[in-house]
Every structure is written in C-alpha cells, then in structure tokens.
Fold this sequence. Notes:
Blueprint: H1 3-29, H2 32-53, H3 59-78, H4 84-92, H5 106-114, H6 121-132, H7 137-143, H8 148-164, H9 177-196, H10 208-224, H11 229-242, H12 268-286, H13 293-306, H14 315-328, H15 332-346, H16 348-356, H17 366-378, H18 382-395, H19 399-410
Helix pairs in contact: 1-2, 1-3, 1-5, 2-3, 5-6, 6-8, 6-9, 7-8, 9-10, 9-11, 10-11, 11-12, 11-13, 12-13, 13-14, 14-15, 15-16, 16-17, 17-18, 18-19
Amino acid sequence: MNDVDVQEAITRTHHEEWGRVVASLTKRFGDLDIAEEAAAEAFAAAVERWPADGVPPNPGGWLTTTANRKAIDRIRRENKRDDKHKEARMVSGDDPPEPVGAIDDDRLRLIFTCCHPALAVQARVALTLRMVAGLTVPEIARAFLVRETALEQRITRAKAKIKAARIPYRVPAAEDLPARLSGVLAVLYLVFNEGYLATGPGTDPLRHDLTAEAIRLTRLIRALLPDDGEVAGLLALMLLTEARRTARVSADGELVPLAEQDRGAWNAALIAEGHRLVRERLAAAAAGAAPGRYQILAAINAVHTSARDIRDTDWSQILALYDQLVRLDPSPIIALNRAITLAELDGPDVALAAVDRLGDKLADYHAYHATRADLLRRLGRSRQSRAAYDKAIELAGNTAETAHLTRRRAQLG
C-alpha cells in the first residue's frame, strides 16, 4: 500500500470511526474533553505510524485502543488528589452501569447528549458537528460564519454545561424518546439547510460538505432507529433535495429555480432511494400511522421529483399535502410555500392575496419578498415587482440567490 492509499485510508477511517471512538471514550470516562482530546491524539498517532507500519486490519479497534491509552495517560498526568478514586475507577473501567435508555448504542448516546435541550440550539449544532461528525473547529466556524475563537468558546461552554448540570450520557427512556428525538432531527435539518442554501458574502452558495454530513448522521440514526417514521421522512427529504444539487446553480453562479432546472442532471439514485422511503411511509400511513412534518415534506418533494417536466407536476396533490402540513405546522413559512403552489392552480392573483396576508409575520424574510416579486411580475405590475425584488435582494444572504433575483429584476426593464 503506497502513501496515497494510506492517506486515503486514514481519511476514510476518520470519517467512519471518529464518532464511534469518541462515543466509546465518553461512555468509559464520562468526560467529553477527555474523549475529544484522546480521539484526536489517536488519529494523530495513526497519521504518524500507519505510513510506516501499514494500516491495521481493524482500524477502528486500533484507534479505540490507542485513544483509551491516551485518555488513561492524561488522567494519570493530571494526578489530582481529589480524583484518586475516580482515576482508579476510570483506569480499571469498572464504573457502575448507567441506564441504557430505549436503545443501547454509544453513538446514539453521544448524539442525544450533544443535542440536549438544556443547550442553546447553536451550541447543539456546533457540538454535534465536532463530537459526532469530527469536523474541525475551523471547518464549523467557516460553515456558520463565526470566528474560530467564538466557536471554540461555544463548544467549551457547552461541554462545561453538560458536566456541571450532570447531563446524563444516555438515550432517553422509551416514553421520552419521541420528544427528544425531534430536537436531534431539528439540529440535523439546520445543518442540512445551511449547506443547501449557504449564507454570507464570499461563501459557496451550496455547501456539499454540510449536506453530506447531515445525510450521513441521519443515516446513522435511521440505522439505529429503523422504525421511526420521522427519521425516515427526514432522510428522504434530504436525499430528494440533495439529488437536485448539481442542477441548482448555473455555470455563472446563479440559482436556477426548480421550474428551470435540467431534470436530466438530477441524481437518479438518490431520487430512487428517497422515493422508496416515501412509499414505505405512505404504506405505514395507510395502516394508520399518522405522518409527521418531515414525512409530509418528503412526500411533497417526491411529487416534484416524479415529474419529468415542470408541466407534468401534480399541483393538486402538492396542495393537498400542504393542507395536511399546515394542520401540523401552521407556520407562516409553510403558508407561504402553500401559496406558491396555489399560484399554479388558481393563478397569481389568488396566490398574491394569500401571500400579502403573511406580510406582518414575514417582513424580514427574503423569500416572502421574492415570492411577491414573482407574482407581481406575472400580473404585469412591474413597478411593485421591482420594489419587492429590491427588498428580497437586500435580505438575501446567498450569493447565487442574489444573482438570480438581480437578473429577474433587470428583466422588468
């Protein structure tokens, strides 16, 4: 195996094993700082030794063993008097067993710990990407447009709060699992959305690294909780959205609306997998399992991606799904998306009336003004359309979206 193969093996192992190693260490030592530092040292040892010694037959096992030794060495180095008993217990590994919760899996315990509701949402996102996904602090800071020092402090404070509040390292009990799981899925959806439509000047408009990481973590949860409908729904939603990624931005960096995308450039394998998940959830719904928010959003995307041409889209079915979704989530953003669908069925004037009713709640949301601008353009009200485009451009944070809105405004003459 040459040096390039070894480096590829290290990169692949880091991607596949980081979360497992950190989770195993956290279970044994009960400390996220120790787990993170020891895991990082183990991977550094792999970078140093594998090119000379070769990649071990069980890379994950080698890393876990090495990381455990690194953690024990750190504890012994600190050698604090008050921690003598704790040190002996950690080194021997004979801690009393913790309650395992509904599912006994170290990685799932780590995800629920990082996404605990006692932490601020931003801290949950940062901690999950660092501890579970293995992204570096610079990578996370760059993705969410914050300074590295600020992000490092955010992660440090989150770990300190987990320790001080004695947040348990375990999967919630079965009766608490649905409520806690929704928070985990919300974190993963935030990560995916930032990659799907990245914000900030100088930022790539699409961040494939973030969408791919969100999909990978959702796949992990799906493997651990295969019967949960909302996990399947979120995975299907991500896959069907990611399938359109290469068609969403033109060669000159402009966002391409769904109606104008080259559907032949969509990823057929991701669409097929997403459709299969949606069909599974539809069968469950037919058997009496009420679909949740992510499942309905996935079904809407399945209808869109089933049409070979925008003219073949079943808008009536999409509207029916939005009607169902509004009953679950009566948010103004869902109502806005429903109004966009309404324009295809009842015309832009009916849709505009529905959109205008949302003005008080969405005045600072760029998509509200972009939608109004498009509807006003279709109605021939160019002056009002231009003003709406101006506001949408002012509020939009995505470079490709800004380019698209600017061109549309220029077409008004």
